[in-house]
């Protein structure tokens, strides 16, 4: 059966060039980068090259990039490390209502331990308003954390402006850029962030590797304690093959950034146009102005997302949904809720993400299947356009 | 899909008795789109014998909501009204060969919807049934104490 993968925001396949660079680091160049003999130093050189490539992609200094085990670890590090190192200054953190759970649940954990967390609202496009940040800042605020690109609706946040506001008040600024890396240009110096989280598997690199950009001088405690790896900032023997893969993926992302954005966004726009043309009663959630190039988040009115997901799966098409029924918590998407989308519309929302291996034919096939599936489920549904909700 | 067994998938992919009976003898609706699942059931009843001769459903909801609606209509066709009133969500889930535990409380709306349809039929025809005693079709969260946590 034909397989169409349209969930690139969930993860991406490892590109062949990436895998090829990784493979020697499993059994040939297997040395521990901390070992002084040649075999170890060979592995250390691979890690150093990868660090350089990731740093180059985001315009950071090489010694400001620290590898982690995933994006979530970098997010946790930012929350726990900054609140710990700056506990004498205060116990207040500001973030947003639409962050990834790696941020939200870190915030929840901290709030049970005496830290106050303020969650900034977003508008119906999913955007944070700088004046809301300005209002939320208190003398005891130690950290502001706002994601660069939202994972569900793809909205890009005005990070430069938000970071400047935080800095005006002497507050450390962190941004979760896991969905942004390789999809929007990132220049950490221009954005003015102090900390930024990244993940390898969203940019055609392997799973199990992430990175933290840490501007020199940022007041942040270590999160993982042990050996002197990562300039004694993050302990644990390096995942050399994974890090090397992340480095190669970063190099490719930098080379392809412009063409990737152009190709993916034009496919995404084509997909949205075809969906609107073929299927009545659909709503595109979020905004087309400043959005992840591959993201299309669409509500199909009068039907439920898990049903759509299962029927698309039967056709070999892989997507994700914000419906409560598909989540283990049975809660509808917190992101779409924060955008003010009515719950019944959230239940029928599907996130499609287009990526480098998506073709126009894939999208034509998807629209064809989707048209039939939506029609079928609407025939079964107890709600419809005439009856209303 | 690994989350549902083959029988549930079959009932979801090829549901029986989808639709709405015109001039139905009884109509019942339960759930709401806000909750994520809403089922409507219409029934035809032979007024002399009280046998349910036809039942059709329309459901907004997830895979298990649609599959359980379909199974429920299969189960009550040919039964008397009193027998249909005894059909429980537990029995529907058992007939389906089980559902993921997380789906049981939220997505199986059928026994309440069936009772509502029979309540409507009873009201229109001035009939009373022991199985409807104390039943309120508008109650939001009917206790389902006989539904086990894990099936």
Describe it:
- The complex is a heterodimer of chains A (389) and B (151).
- By secondary structure, chain A is of the alpha/beta class.
- Chain A folds into two domains: 4-11 and 258-380, Aspartate Aminotransferase, domain 1; 16-252, Type I PLP-dependent aspartate aminotransferase-like (Major domain) (Aspartate Aminotransferase, domain 2).
- Chain A has helices at 16-22, 24-27, 38-57, 71-85, 101-111, 130-136, 159-168, 188-191, 229-232, 240-278, 305-314, 334-338, 343-347, 360-380, and strands at residues 4-5, 65-68, 92-96, 116-120, 141-145, 172-176, 195-199, 210-214, 282-284, 295-300, 317-318, 320-321, 349-353.
- Chain A is globular and about 70 Å long.
- The model of chain A has no long low-confidence stretch (mean pLDDT 97).
- With 151 residues, chain B is an alpha+beta fold.
- Chain B has a single domain (6-125), classed as Sufe protein. Chain: A (Alpha-Beta Complex).
- Chain B is globular.
- The chains are: A alpha/beta (389), B alpha+beta (151).
- The A-B interface holds A 302-304, 306-307, 310-311, 313-314, 323-326, 328, 330, 332, 342-344, 347, 379-383, 389 and B 1, 4, 9, 12-13, 15, 18, 29, 33-34, 36-40, 58-63, 65-66, 102-103, 106-107.
């Amino acid at each position: 059966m034909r397989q169409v993968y349209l969930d690139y925001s969930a993860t991406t396949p490892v590109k062949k060039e990436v895998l090829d660079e990784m493979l020697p680091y499993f059994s040939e160049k297997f040395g521990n980068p901390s070992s002084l003999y040649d075999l170890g130093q060979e592995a250390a050189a691979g890690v150093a090259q990868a660090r350089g490539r990731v740093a180059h992609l985001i315009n950071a200094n090489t010694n400001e990039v620290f590898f982690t085990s995933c994006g979530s670890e970098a997010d946790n590090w930012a929350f726990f490390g900054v609140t710990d190192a700056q506990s004498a200054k205060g116990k207040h953190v500001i973030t947003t209502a639409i962050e990834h759970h790696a941020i939200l649940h870190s915030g929840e954990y901290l709030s049970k331990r005496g830290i106050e967390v303020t969650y900034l609202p977003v508008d119906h496009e999913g955007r944070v308003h700088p004046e809301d940040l300005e209002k939320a800042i208190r003398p005891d605020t130690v950290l502001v954390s706002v994601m660069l690109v939202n994972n569900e609706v793809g909205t890009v946040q005005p990070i430069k402006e938000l970071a400047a506001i935080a800095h005006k008040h002497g507050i450390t600024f962190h941004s979760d850029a896991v969905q942004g890396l390789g999809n929007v240009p990132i220049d950490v110096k221009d954005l003015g962030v102090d900390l930024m989280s990244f993940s390898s598997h969203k940019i055609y690199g392997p799973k199990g590797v992430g990175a933290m950009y840490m501007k020199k001088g940022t007041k942040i405690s270590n999160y993982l304690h042990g050996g002197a790896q990562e300039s004694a900032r993050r302990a644990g023997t390096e995942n050399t093959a994974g890090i090397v893969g992340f480095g190669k993926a970063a190099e490719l992302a930098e080379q392809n950034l412009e063409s990737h954005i152009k190709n993916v966004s034009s496919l995404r726009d084509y997909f949205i146009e075809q969906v609107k043309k073929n299927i009545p009663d659909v709503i595109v959630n979020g905004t087309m102005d400043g959005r992840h190039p591959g993201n299309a988040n669409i509500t199909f009115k009068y039907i439920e997302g898990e049903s759509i997901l299962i029927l698309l799966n039967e056709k070999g098409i892989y997507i994700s949904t914000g419906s409560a029924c598909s989540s283990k918590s049975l809660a509808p998407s917190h992101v779409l809720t924060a955008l003010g989308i009515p719950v019944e519309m959230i239940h029928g929302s599907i996130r499609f993400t287009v990526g480098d291996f998506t073709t126009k034919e894939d999208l034509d096939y998807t629209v064809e299947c989707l048209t039939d599936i939506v029609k079928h489920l609407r025939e079964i549904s107890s709600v419809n356009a005439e009856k209303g909700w | 899909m690994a989350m549902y067994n083959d029988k549930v998938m079959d009932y979801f992919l090829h549901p029986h008795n989808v639709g709405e009976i015109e001039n139905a003898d009884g109509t019942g609706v339960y759930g709401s789109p806000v909750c994520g699942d809403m089922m409507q059931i219409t029934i035809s009843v032979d007024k002399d014998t009280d046998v349910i001769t036809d039942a059709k459903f329309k459901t907004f909801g997830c895979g298990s909501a649609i599959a359980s609606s379909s199974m429920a209509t299969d189960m009550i066709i040919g039964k008397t009204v009193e027998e249909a009133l005894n059909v429980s969500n537990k029995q529907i889930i058992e007939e389906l060969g089980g559902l993921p535990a997380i789906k049981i409380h939220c997505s199986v709306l059928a026994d309440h919807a069936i009772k509502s349809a029979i309540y409507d039929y009873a009201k229109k025809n001035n009939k009373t049934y022991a199985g409807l005693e104390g039943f309120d079709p508008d109650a939001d969260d009917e206790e389902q104490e006989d539904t086990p946590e894990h099936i």
